[in-house]
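Quick one, T. Sequence first:
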Amino acid sequence: MDSTEKKDIVSDGAEGRYDCIKLENQLCFPLYVCSKEIVRRYKPFLDEMGITYTQYITMMVLWERGSVTVSRLGECLYLDSGTLTPVLKTLEAKGLVVRKRSAEDERSVIVEATEAGMALREQAVTVPPRMGACVNLSQEDAMELYRILHLLIDNIGK
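Structure tokens:
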């Protein structure tokens, strides 16, 4: 079957009707590919630190905030507790975080970085410039992409 025959089968005689489901017309697809490839590029740098990408972004919140409730951590990372709990268990097993019940509200669990977890931050500061070299965007383009992605996140969240 040649490409003309394939096109006829795909379009089924309704030229343009199926354009909306062509892969090349999807915003979600390049977002998916970029996300997958960015995480793949992070892997060797994070392997040196002994953590995964999800563990890395979890630690980023803790490095910034010190301690945080599990629910707030999930909000920051857009992760549900079913995804976050195993990440925290693994980080705790590695000695990078501790979880404890809140003194004010026993239903609430607080997560904080241990001394070893905070020390890992020294290795982490080398990751963004190394990733920047992989991505190879100008500062202006990177800021514009960041702005648009956060606009999209905000719009989807509404």
